[in-house]
Amino acid sequence: MSITVLIADDQAMVRQGFGALLAAQPDISVIGDAPNGVVAVTEAKRLRPDVVLMDVRMPEMNGLDAARAILDAGFEPPVRVLMLTTFDIDDYVYEALGLGASGFLLKDAPADELVRAVRVVAEGQALLAPTVTRRLIADVTRRRARPRPAPALNSLTPREREVLELIAKGMSNTEIAQALFVAEQTVKTHVSKVFSKLDLRDRAQAVVIAYESGLVTPG
Hints:
Blueprint: E1 3-8, H1 12-23, E2 28-34, H2 37-47, E3 51-55, H3 63-72, E4 80-85, H4 90-99, E5 103-106, H5 111-122, E6 127-128, H6 130-143, H7 158-168, H8 173-180, H9 184-198, H10 203-212
Parallel strand pairs: 1-2, 1-3, 3-4, 4-5, 5-6
Helix pairs in contact: 2-3, 3-4, 6-10, 7-9, 7-10, 8-9
């Protein structure tokens, strides 16, 4: 089945360019677009796409407010939001992740990275641009002079803690499976249990708690 996508950006050329790029993929269908946040919310509710590519800065309603309205609607199956911006700014990252956005990608990312991002987010995984991930980790470390206790980590088994550490280091399920010499399905089971025990939505939140708690340190 095709991954359905709605593109929200106030620049027509961006909508058309991203639309043509994604529509050329055999497993992706662009089912609509929106020039501002208000239309993005309306179209997301009407079309129920798998993924919304959401520009952060748009007129009438910005991308963060539009993302909040879409994510708070609680659609089932869920509508995933992938934030797009030309601005690599930490505050946007924190707010977007706090709202429940599944990813954050810079607009100048290579075409293949955008396509991969849509596929990853559609699968229910989180995605952050590499530069954004590095800034996020550095900022979390800077804000926390000392690790912030996370009692819920005590509920994890040694293997689940190991999986969380590898998630925080940016590894995919496939890479974790190879590192631990186990089946990928086994890794998926561990990841699911980690998310459940720590009440996490996605891998982005897992990265934050791993670094904030001191379970993983930069370097």
